[in-house]
From TrEMBL, chains A, B:
It comes from the Eukaryota. This is Uncharacterized protein. Residues 62-347 form the D-isomer specific 2-hydroxyacid dehydrogenase catalytic domain. Keywords: NAD, NADP, Oxidoreductase. It comes from Coptis chinensis. Coiled coil: none annotated. Residues 132-315 form the D-isomer specific 2-hydroxyacid dehydrogenase NAD-binding domain. One of its GO terms (cellular component) is cytosol. Belongs to the D-isomer specific 2-hydroxyacid dehydrogenase family. Pfam families: 2-Hacid_dh (PF00389), 2-Hacid_dh_C (PF02826). GO terms for molecular function: glyoxylate reductase (NADPH) activity; hydroxypyruvate reductase [NAD(P)H] activity; NAD binding.
Amino acid sequence: MAEEQELKDHREEQELQIVLLLGLGPPPLFKFFPELLQKFKFLSPFEYPTTPIHQFLKFHAQSIEVMICMGGGRKESIPVNWEVLNSLPSLKCILNTGVGVNHIDLTECKQRGIIVCNAGNSYSEDAADFAVGLLLDVLRRISASNRYVRSGLWPLKGEYPLGHKVVPSLLIPFYVGGQRVGIVGLGSIGSEVAKRLDAFGCSIAYNSRRKKESILFPYYSNVCDLAANCDILILCCALTDETYHIINKDVLSALGKDGVIINVGRGALVDEKALVRFLVRGEIGGAGLDVFENEPTVPKELLELDNVVLSPHKAVHTLGSMSALYELTIANLEAFFSNKPLLSPVNYEQEAITL
Amino acid sequence: MAEEQELKDHREEQELQIVLLLGLGPPPLFKFFPELLQKFKFLSPFEYPTTPIHQFLKFHAQSIEVMICMGGGRKESIPVNWEVLNSLPSLKCILNTGVGVNHIDLTECKQRGIIVCNAGNSYSEDAADFAVGLLLDVLRRISASNRYVRSGLWPLKGEYPLGHKVVPSLLIPFYVGGQRVGIVGLGSIGSEVAKRLDAFGCSIAYNSRRKKESILFPYYSNVCDLAANCDILILCCALTDETYHIINKDVLSALGKDGVIINVGRGALVDEKALVRFLVRGEIGGAGLDVFENEPTVPKELLELDNVVLSPHKAVHTLGSMSALYELTIANLEAFFSNKPLLSPVNYEQEAITL
């Protein structure tokens, strides 16, 4: 049979160390860094479209000790659940190309002694840059201004938003310096955000599972308390059972009508329905969202709002991040195959992204 | 005659110190801070629409020692030229509500011993925030992403810009940290920009008329040399005869095809036709523009480009800036009427905005 022959041919070629590739089609990493393909033998179910994935995994089960996993956080990605893990009894290591590992069953991995690595700090600066970019955009209405100019309204209606006819509540009330910023999840992304916003004159506070003794910013153990004492919340934490819908209606109420939510973590950190309700009713001041609960679906109510900036889960799409991820992936694979410590293991109780 | 009676009535009411208000209709400053009206007597030609402006000025000529001037930089604003200055022989002081004073004949003011004040540092932080916001938007395509999501393309076409079909040149190549930023005009706005971008990991260099001995950033006496050694140019200088079209085709060529121009100064700092040509041909990487040569007209070629972010001259439209300007205006007026030194005089050879 064609598919069996296909698989056999492949097995016979194996001189290089085998790495399973699980995700959504060929990842950009290999497009940009084809030299990876010379160093390791990658197996991917996507190269064998006629073979069902469970059969593919079963066929290669014994030979696979390490797997690269990508596309996490996307609805259509393959979750690394009990079933997948069970079909790979030799698996010792998962290298996730993303930062968030909520698509991987960490409890099961822990029980099986499988080390899970994520993208480490590869994306931290890009994610932080993007978070700050979203914040500046929401506070200073950059996308909305851009839309205003492109629509040809400037010569017709005068200054954005309403020229000299502005009343105080319509004039953009926000001033970046002096804003009280609450960072939810002070991992490496959150720390990079803090460093940047400090230079703008913002005051910083944070929430995380535990107070970090080396950090001088005020700590709030409760997100609601953080929200009550901040103008802006920036979500940089991992999605876990504990952080699912960590931003709910109570937090949004505490944040108040001038409050702004920035999310570069995962969509499900936010109760999206509640957020939409608060935004539509003007009960919070704005939002900058790179991630959504049901990507690529974006609540249609948001599409009309000038105080909302939407982005298609792209905070870390730069060649800089790609290149850093490439270096990390090579280093992790080489460490794995030479029995050295891996470079970016996650703890099984993910607290903040890239702790 | 109605207009004469109108003017006479007005003159008789004068118990408070008189301040002439010259600009485009009632400025927002007085809308937001009506208490200003209780402290001084403001005369504005816009309150006497039946009186031609030169007649209005002539009528009040002897009584006017100080004038507040707003709307500078806008095409339809009244230039403070020889004619206006000549009709106000008692004028000793001009308080400009903007930072740029290119609509005021500074040479003539100098000869007449008229002190010219601008908005000082009132806007510096807002302008710097906006410049950085524009830069992040251009580098990380935030407005373009927002447009992509709002147009409903995400579920249809996948990740912005082209999902996994991206080729390196289409993947956003920019990484904020490590970008070499050249600041043209290192006044207080430029310095605030430098402070912020330093926190992102950018390296900073600058051009100004003279090297500033207290500044450690590399200095280039020539904008072309600065451009050749930078990835990004941020324009924060005043518009003067010397800085008119300081960004011309030679500078754009030196900046190169991945280069980015950010302008929060004045439109005419840039040879806009050359900029449009370079952008349309892909000979520079992008632009973030808050100001244009013929506001509110924006070159239509720019409206189609994803690597360009456009804003309707609003970098400093915040209540924070308004409030700072109000404080400064009161302080300058009080200083003027009590013969104390003014707080924000410009030098007659404007070098960088808010030196």
